[in-house]
Amino acid sequence: MKLQRSREWWLARARREGDAAIGAGMSALDPLPEAKPTGATGMNVEEARIAFGKFVNLMRRRKGLTIEELAKEADLDVSDLLVIEDHIEYTPDPRTIYKLAQTFDVSQQRLMQLAGLVVANDVGFRLEAVRFAARSEAVEKLNVEEASALEAFIGVLSEREPQRSK
Amino acid sequence: MTVEVSRIYLLDVATGASIDAELRDGIEQEQLDDWRTKWQPALAVVLQELAGRGVPISQWPQSWHWNWDQKSARVQGLLSYRGLCVVAQGETQGLAQIDLTKSCQESRQAGRPLVYLDYLEVAPWNRREIQRPTRFRGVGTALLSAAVQLSLDEGFKGRLGLHSLPQADDFYRGMGMTDLGPDSNYQGLRYFEMTADHARAFLDEED
């Protein structure tokens, strides 16, 4: 199917469309908000969430910040950060992930995967997340092993997903 | 299957500039990845905000009947159908799926074959009820134009049928499609059909 029209033809139609919401078919209906986006299938969601909570905890401490200070820097609620670090059953919303990814300077998509909001497709990433969760203990100060585990995992979080072959 | 690419133009809402875009007559893995990693998170933000604010369902932008698993499964299944998409600035801006096995219901053309638009969705950032201001205008119209052209190519004379989302009803009426009323088999979505005459006017070269 080829459809060739002038730039003016297309732009005139775009203008006519205005703010109209165009959609068709039952599959185009939006999902219910109570139903959360599919969790990280393939990766044990709990493991990923543990890794996510630990990651936030360690990154915060590496920056030498209290929860309150991080909340201020990332423009987030203190209560949100508290449950993220301590309660694995809590799923943060995408805006929170976005702010954290910016604050920690890591890939937003990767952090989404870690938080269980979207699916990670590469096995390597899942393994790294599990390994990270297993290696880091929650203590008052970062010890040498935690620091190196964190450094290694920041590297993984900064990488993009590998392109899949078609 | 080779995907045919047509050069089209969208309107950048913020600047009023013309944006180069591609109309592609196939849906590929890139589109599904965009849906999963970009559309879904963008939509989730709005859905959760609405739920959190305690906005009554009657005031939500449209009917929110699908859960994520169902919707995700349907979208991931698009690869096996005839699809259309619009791509601009490296991102999928709109998706549509075509069914060539259905027949017309409108009295003047009842029983004749038509292109049935099984699914048409525009990226959340191009939808006013999701994001203001929106990014691009013209995505939905481009997908409809492509579906009509496909109907001509198939020898169906531009005949087109679809079940409209509630907030799109006025748009389809405005472009001259016949409103055949709510369809109880499709969660009460209204069924619209485009006749051959309307199709010719819709794809007219003149402007």
Automatic annotation (TrEMBL), chain A:
Residues covered by the HTH cro/C1-type domain: 56-111
Pfam families according to UniProt: HTH_19
Annotated GO MF terms: DNA binding
InterPro entries linked: Cro/C1-type_HTH, Lambda_DNA-bd_dom_sf
Name of the featured protein: Transcriptional regulator
Native source species: Bosea vaviloviae
UniProtKB/TrEMBL annotation, chain B:
InterPro entries listed in its UniProt record: Acyl_CoA_acyltransferase
Protein name per its UniProtKB record: Uncharacterized protein
Organism lineage: Bacteria, Pseudomonadati, Pseudomonadota, Alphaproteobacteria, Hyphomicrobiales
GO molecular function ontology, one term from the record: acyltransferase activity, transferring groups other than amino-acyl groups
